[in-house]
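Example record

The entry below shows one chain as it appears in the dataset: sequence first, then structure tokens.
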Amino acid sequence: MSTSTYTVVGMTCEHCVRSVSEEVGAIPGVSDLSVDLASGALSVTTVAEPVADEAVREAVAEAGYQLA
């Protein structure tokens, strides 16, 4: 099990959190995630190997936001 933490920039509401959660949650291998609106913290947990940072960056961009 592996957990990585990122900071998402540009989220302003719960809809933003849901969008990021949906896109990042669709990455193969992601078993759990949490998004904190106030701090922008995104924690991604995988069962096996960590997810590539670029895959997380692309998923966050697809939701309309970016990583710090």
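Notes for this example: The chain has a mean pLDDT of 96. Strands lie at 2-9, 30-35, 41-46, 66-67.
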